[in-house]
Amino acid sequence: MPELPEVEALTGFLRERAVGRTVARVDVLAISALKTYDPPVTALGGLTVTGVARRGKFLDLDVDGIHLVIHLARAGWLRWRDEVPARPARPGGKNPLALRLHLDDGSGFDLTEAGTKKGLAVYVVRDPADVPGVAALGPDPLDETFTPEALREIVAGKRTQIKGLLRDQKVIAGIGNAYSDEVLHVARMSPFKIASTLDDTDIATLHDAIVTTLRGAVERSRGLEAQDLKGEKKTGLRVHGRTGEKCPVCGDIVREVSFADSSLQYCPTCQTGGKPLADRRMSRLLK
Question: For this protein, what reaction is catalysed (predicted)?
Fold first, then answer.
């Protein structure tokens, strides 16, 4: 799933290539991905892309005051084309095409989504705040207002596991399953630690881990072509998706906890005092 660093990189990529270009037309192939009808997607035709912004994990293209807002969800992706194929776009294939945007110079991009569980969402709105997910976003962790004091207010009184809190877009915008694992590994903190139990030292450590991990990933992704971002994300991860491999910090084996539709990875030595966490569907903790 694209998270803050990848969406930030896509934002910069589109600023360089799309801003100043006029939208020739938009082809919608997966009508289920289009979540709005007023203004119609056809209203974008003939308008100029004047800006691109990231809002949490949302991409926001400002097209002469009408906003094309995109959430790539779990398996969506943006594929840039310097020359859009002359043949009409067709649905189906390994990575089914959901939407194709044509620009006036012949370039443009496709939105695709793999798998059977569809979550890709496209909105055409007059104000980004008209998108419910955008309106509900918590603070951006790369914003200067996201300070240790702000994080202290966020965790205060929250009887929630810190892993879940970091992934909650209404609490902190942009962090998903992968980077929450990475942040907690850097902070040497158990994913099951209760947020309200964090003391001032924990909060300072966690804040530093959030900011340095995300900024580092953003820097590694900066300037890459859109098609290279997934590979960069995977190679830059230390524990997420690396079950059974050695922790790059201590050499212990990276472990996994599986849930119904996701999993987390962690290092017992670095994060849980050497105790492996059990699958939550079976027990709370192996002692």
Answer: Hydrolysis of DNA containing ring-opened 7-methylguanine residues, releasing 2,6-diamino-4-hydroxy-5-(N-methyl)formamidopyrimidine
